Amino acid sequence: SLYVSEYFSQSAQKLSFYSWYGNAKLFHFRVPEDTVLLRWLLQASRGKGPECTNMEITVHFRYGAPPVINPLGTDFPANATVRPSYSISITLSSAVQNTTFVNITTPAAGDWFIAAHLPEAAGRIEVKGFSTPCPYMFQADMFVLRLTDMPVLEPGVATPQTVVSPAKALHVKVFVPKHTAVMRLELRNCVTSEQKACAVRVVLGSITLPQSFQRIITCVGKVNCSLALDSPPWEKWLQIMVESLGAANASVLVEMLASFRACRPGSTSSFLNFSSLNQNQTGPRPGSAGAAGSPTLSVGETSRNASNQRSFCLQNQPVVREDLDVVSVRYRLLNGPSMPVNSLSPTLLLLNLNTGMDSGGSLVVNLLLNKTSVSLANATVVACVSAASPVLSLNATHNCSTAFFQGYPLRVSTSSPEAMLIVLYPQTDDWFLSLQLICLKGQGECNAAEAKVTVFAYLTPCFNDCGPYGQCSLLRRHGYLYAGCSCKAGWGGWSCTDVTKAQSVSAQNLATLLLTLSNLMFLPAIAVAVYRYYVVEASVYTYTMFFSTFYHACDQPGVAVMCIMNYDTLQYCDFLGSVVSIWVTILCMSRVKKILKYVLFMLGTLLIAMSLQLDRRGVWNMMGPCLFALVIMIAAWVYHGVKRRHCYPPSWKRWVFYLLPGITLAFIAISVYAFMETNENYYYTHSIWHVLVASSVAFLLPPRDKHKKPWAWSQKLTCRYQICQNDREELYAVT
């Protein structure tokens, strides 16, 4: 046999601490056909700085779709099917780099996904630039060993094969045609090279993760062995591996025969059905009354259909796949949303999800039984959703499984007429929905009965659009798109349905009130600025108070939200007002000449607006203007002190009662903002930041000029002659 090795690699990704599915880094590979060995090379590394500590990286594997993971132990939505993912842990301790290998023999061909993430996020809000997070990198490479001349078994033809030695297994494959009900594999005349009864181990099927359903035959001391598979995967190559369990130097000779029993399908479709493609078949939603059924048949047609159904093992219902958007598909039945289900043979619907771009959403199947269509009180409609091949034998105790797939069962009856199934990240394949009418007391009384079942099936990016407390985000890894829910207001879970840590509506209202009303602490600062003739500064504080109030009213995660304009605009104006307020306050304290002060006001505001557009959350957007303004203020104070030969500001009362309290409040505010804020305490720590900053401004604003009198509105509004003061020449003139 000729083996070919291939190597596939993807660029490394920086890992994140886990809080939602978007934090997991996804790798997407495609395993070629006839692969007999798959080896993953997983490389994890970390930085060398002191902030880097020991870390455990969790890596999840899945075939056909992204892994469904739950590192936080939260709840999934009701009616969702969840099977634990296959995962391993990689520990980065003293070593800067860790290399791990994962081997898989006879892997299934197709899409394979790897998701990696760090432990749960701490929830602390870090200001960009104050701390340097440790970089943790992860890279996945794939090696495959592929057999180029794998022997093919022809159906119904006994093919002689040889297992050379126990160290080298025999690999063959057979193609399973469509509508196969049973596949039978037989080993005939199995003897060793010494003409003794053979000892072999036969493995049918490929490995899929997280669950693998390979079928194994151990043939020891027998010349003939066989195995039957119910509902093998349709229109796929099935790998068969034969291993010798005998002596090391003895080969095994065996004849392999694969045979199939086909299922004759009956179909209710005709050319007339396609005329309904251009019609809007919305139909009633689940739970609504008056579900529309199929046209009524005459008694003769009904009896003739019943006799025809006995010769078929299944009834096909034509389904149209309608693509709506990215990872958004609706399935429409050509004969109407309601279809007949009987006990003679299962009714089958094909849900096509094999485009390669459908596995990043959620498949939703909803069944609604028309109770008036079932004449038997104890009759039940049993359904099964499966991939690759349908379940062709449904009964009350059936476990809803095919040869290599464990399906998802559903059941509707007159006492429970509605059932829903949610398949999270369905694997890329043809999916089938099988339905059949079952009578608990015996199938004899069900032969003439028929039930009408309305089927709603669709693929959606996020189930229920993540609810009122979540946001459905479309994620991308290279050309592959998938969706995930980002929850807010303490809600959690896959679809934001976990209420364990959810905030109540009263708590949400309190958070909104604290974050918005705390901005009213700028009113004292505005009043002080206006009283001391700092009108420009007062205007900046008013601007900051207004946009900070409405930005936080729009930024709330829950239901207490009010947005007067675009969210991004409100955020930008809030950040701009905050930095410009600090800029003008420090320049005002420097007591430079008015013309220079206003030039610096304008120039600094333009530069701050530019820097915020480049990086809105960078710490130097705030620290840069602050430090530059402090340099100007210190230089101006030194100049005034040298000129007057006295400490500036000269009054000790100014230092004790204004400057020191204002500086203390400002430092406390910066400490709270930079080091104490977390996702849980944000609403009150950030409110404290508002109060402290606004209070510090009222203390730090310098007194008005001595030659300026307080506001006297009676003098300002007079129309008589006034004595005006010239600030420059200190002369008086009558006008």
Automatic annotation (TrEMBL):
Among InterPro entries, the record links this protein to: EGF, NGX6/PGAP6/MYMK
Q: Where in the cell is it found?
A: Cell membrane
- Respond yes or no to whether keyword Iron is given for this record: no
Q: Which controlled-vocabulary keywords does the entry list?
A: Cell membrane, Disulfide bond, EGF-like domain, Membrane, Transmembrane, Transmembrane helix
Q: Where is the composition biased (Low complexity)?
A: 280-295
Question: Which domain of life, per UniProt?
Answer: Eukaryota
Task: Provide the transmembrane region boundaries.
Answer: 510-534, 595-614, 620-639, 655-676, 682-701
Instruction: Outline the extent of the EGF-like domain.
Output: 458-497
Identification of the protein by name = TMM8A factor
Q: Which organism is it from?
A: Stercorarius parasiticus
> What gene name is given for the protein in this entry?
Tmem8a
